[in-house]
Structure formats: structure tokens, C-alpha cells
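in:
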């Protein structure tokens, strides 16, 4: 097990500087344009593919970094560049991790390369779990997968919503109900291969922020996929369902609580995205406060402004520390006895919202315009307290974990 450290090693520093260069030279200059266009920034994704940032190899290298700092460091740098474009770059990775974590070796080898495509023909992937009536309440999911034994096929019907890259993805990973009696323990994930009949894009959402990232409904009408598209395989699913039925007999509440904690290990990565946005806004505000003069002196000469900057930087650093701790715990299999993953996501996402608002205030009228990036960063920051579990759900998970009580 790697010791917890706050010091990046030489190799990590090199990767961080390389990512920072890409974020500063390629992502940041393109941010305003793609925010206005509200479209997937394919040319930027292609650039990222050419240099090796948009690839499974890169993602897997960071994901399996034994210090746990690879993913948070990479997320922070890319999202420092711009949240919408960065989400377009890492969105595929989120779907790929679903396959890496639950898929068989054959599934990993077959589907992940098709999620990324190659530098000349880049593709993206989508992870589709949320539904119109099942957001925070994952157990209310209705999309149904039924096994057709005669053909060894799964038949999937339902509507997914809020899917990042939904409908434009080459490969969709779809979570569906296989046993309605078991709540979220009766769910399974399926690969929907490219061009599968019955899968279509529904509404594409016009969003407040991260507008360069495509978000849409995904409609599944009698979608048939081979048995081999069930992630992990049928035998493993049957064993898991049998265990869940046994546990359900002992008490439904336990089943529900476990479901809420499922994302504990992946939440710090979202926290790291928020740290990137918060740090970016803080840096813009610091520079501005040092150069903008009113009453014959830089505005940072006023304690009212300087103290805000001190608080902003303190919060950003505190958020990063929580994220790094949780990421280290996740890679080393440490139990999240105080829901440290949720804690990191909660604090970092609330920090991003607050710090970006403070940055607008420090830039005054300029902060409120699209001539300066903090306005966009503030719109972008609002997503962190919503996706991958809202702030309220994080508080619920933390409170339940700390108390052992079924708090509502
Ligand atoms: C831009 C974007 C991208 C997304 N990408 C994806 C994706 O790629 N794949 C995917 O599957 N999903 C994705 N999501 C969905 C996201 O995870 C959900 O929006 C989120 O889980 C919240 O669900 P909801 O929107 O239905 O809100 P609701 O669950 O309806 O919540 C509404 C409000 O009620 C509060 N609330 C609900 N229950 C409780 C409770 N028990 N206690 C206290 N407060 C509560 C919430 O905190 C929130 O403030 C994305 C969403 C957005 C906006």
C-alpha cells in the first residue's frame, strides 16, 4: 500500500505540467467559443487524442496510480482549462471505468477501444443511469432488461436522461432493472454496441453551464443486445442477485443504504474537477485584484478584497486535501468509515460554487460579462453540486455513515 503523500513524485509532476500546458494552450483558448456554440468540441477532443490525453492508456495509467493522486491531478488540470471541454474529454473515461470495473477481460478488450476510436476518427462513450423519475432515487429506475433465453439476448426498454454524450456516443453503457424486487441491487449494466437498432437520442438539453458537453435523453425501444453485452456476464449476475435476495430478506433498509454508498470511490474525481474550476477562478481574481486600480491603488490593497482571496485559496487547498485523501483511500481499498469520498465531493463542489461567485464579485462589472472567464466558470461550477449525487445526497450519505441511522 502506498503511503499517503501530498507531494507528487517526479513522474506525476511531469504529467501534471504536460496536462497544464495542454489545458492552457489548447483548452482555455477554445473555452468561450464552445460554450457559445453549445456543441461537442470534436477538434479539441481530436487534439487530445493526438497527444495521448484522450485514450484508455492515459486514463488507465492515472486510474491505477497506486498513490491515488493520478486521477485527481489530471482532473484538476483539465478542468482548470475549462469544465465543459474537459467533461467532453473525460466523459468517455467515466463510461470506460464502468466497463473496467465490472466487465470481463473480453468485454474490456472489445468495447473500450470502440469507445475512444482513434486520433483520426475519435469516438465518445456515454454512461446512462439517470431517468426522468429516478435521479437521486436510483432505486426508482424503470428501464427494464429482460433475458430472452432462446436467443441469448437481452431486450431493453426505457428512457434515460441527462446522459453525457447520450445519443452521440459510439458505445452506450446502460443501467437497467433485471429484478424489480431488489431496488438498486436488482440493476445490471449493459453495453449497447454502435448502431444498435432501437436506441435513439431524445431531447438535447440547453444548459446553464458546461455547455460544451453534450447532455441528452437516450430512448431505448426494444433494444436487443447479445448476452455477451451484460457487463460481468450472466453467471456473476445470477450469483449477485441470489446474494441480494438473501440480504433483502434480512432488511430492505440495508439494501437501500448500500446503494447510496456505491459511488463513494468515484466521487473524489468529481471533487477534483471542482477544485480545477475553483482554482482557475481564484487565479483570475488574484491577478485582477493586483492590477485593477480604484481610489489610486490596486483593489487588493483593501482588506475586504484581500481577505476574500485568502479565504478562496484556503478553501481550494482544503478541498484538494479532502479529494486527495479520499482518492488515496479508494485506490488502497480503505473503508470509507466517515464517507470520506462523499465528504470530498460535497466540500469541493460547494467550494467551486462559492469561489467562482467571489471571483465575479472581485472582478466587478467585468466579472459579470462574457469578456472574462469567471462568469462561465461560475455557471460551470453549479453542476458539481448536482451530478454524481447532489450535495444533499452527499450529506445524507455522510450523516447515515456517521450515525448508522436511516436518516431521511
Ligand atoms: C449536465 C448533467 C450531466 C449529467 N450526466 C449524467 C450522466 O452522464 N449519466 C447519468 O446517468 N446521469 C447524469 N446526470 C444526472 C445527475 O446525476 C442527476 O441530475 C442527479 O443525480 C440529480 O438527480 P435529479 O436531477 O433527478 O434531481 P432530483 O433527484 O429530483 O433532486 C432534486 C432536488 O431534491 C433534492 N433531494 C432529492 N432527494 C433528497 C433527499 N432524500 N434528501 C434531501 N434532498 C433531496 C436534491 O438534492 C435536489 O436538490 C447528469 C446531470 C446533469 C445536469
Amino acid at each position: 500500500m502506498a503511503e499517503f503523500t501530498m507531494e507528487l513524485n517526479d513522474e506525476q509532476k511531469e504529467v501534471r505540467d504536460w496536462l497544464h500546458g495542454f489545458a492552457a494552450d489548447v483548452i482555455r483558448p477554445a473555452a468561450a467559443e464552445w460554450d457559445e456554440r453549445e456543441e461537442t468540441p470534436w477538434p479539441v477532443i481530436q487534439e487530445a487524442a493526438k497527444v495521448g490525453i484522450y485514450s484508455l492508456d492515459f486514463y488507465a495509467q492515472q486510474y491505477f496510480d497506486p498513490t491515488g493522486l493520478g486521477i485527481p491531478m489530471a482532473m484538476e488540470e483539465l478542468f482548470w482549462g475549462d469544465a465543459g471541454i474537459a467533461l467532453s474529454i473525460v466523459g468517455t473515461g467515466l463510461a470506460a471505468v464502468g466497463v473496467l470495473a465490472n466487465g470481463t477481460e473480453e468485454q474490456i478488450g472489445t468495447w473500450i477501444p470502440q469507445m475512444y476510436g482513434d486520433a483520426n476518427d475519435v469516438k465518445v462513450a456515454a454512461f446512462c443511469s439517470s431517468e426522468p423519475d429516478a435521479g437521486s432515487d436510483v432505486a426508482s429506475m424503470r428501464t427494464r432488461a429482460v433475458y430472452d433465453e432462446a436467443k441469448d439476448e437481452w431486450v431493453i426498454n426505457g428512457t434515460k436522461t441527462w446522459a453525457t454524450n447520450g445519443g452521440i456516443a459510439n458505445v452506450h453503457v446502460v443501467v437497467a432493472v433485471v429484478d424489480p424486487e431488489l431496488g438498486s441491487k436488482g440493476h445490471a449494466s449493459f453495453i449497447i454496441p454502435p448502431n444498435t437498432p432501437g436506441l435513439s437520442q431524445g431531447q438535447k438539453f440547453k444548459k446553464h453551464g458546461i455547455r460544451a458537453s453534450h447532455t441528452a435523453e437516450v430512448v431505448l425501444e426494444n433494444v436487443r443486445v447479445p448476452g455477451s453485452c451484460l457487463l460481468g456476464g450472466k453467471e456473476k449476475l445470477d450469483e449477485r442477485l441470489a446474494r441480494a435476495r438473501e440480504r433483502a430478506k434480512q432488511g430492505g433498509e440495508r439494501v437501500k443504504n448500500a446503494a447510496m454508498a456505491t459511488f463513494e470511490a468515484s466521487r473524489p474525481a468529481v471533487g477534483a474537477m471542482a477544485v480545477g474550476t475553483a482554482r482557475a477562478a481564484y487565479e483570475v481574481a488574484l491577478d485582477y485584484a493586483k492590477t485593477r486600480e480604484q481610489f489610486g491603488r490596486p483593489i487588493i490593497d483593501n482588506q475586504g478584497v484581500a481577505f476574500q482571496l485568502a479565504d478562496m485559496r484556503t478553501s481550494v487547498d482544503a478541498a484538494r486535501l479532502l479529494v486527495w485523501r479520499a482518492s488515496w483511500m479508494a485506490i488502497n481499498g480503505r473503508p470509507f468509515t466517515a464517507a470520506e469520498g462523499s465528504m470530498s465531493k460535497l466540500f469541493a463542489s460547494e467550494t467551486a460554487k462559492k469561489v467562482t461567485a467571489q471571483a465575479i464579485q472581485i472582478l466587478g462589472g467585468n466579472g459579470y460579462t462574457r469578456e472574462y472567464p469567471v462568469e462561465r466558470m461560475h455557471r460551470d461550477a453549479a453542476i458539481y453540486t448536482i451530478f454524481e449525487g447532489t450535495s444533499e445526497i452527499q450529506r445524507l450519505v455522510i450523516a447515515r455513515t456517521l450515525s448508522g441511522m436511516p436518516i431521511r
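note: Residues 253-259 have pLDDT under 50 and may be disordered.
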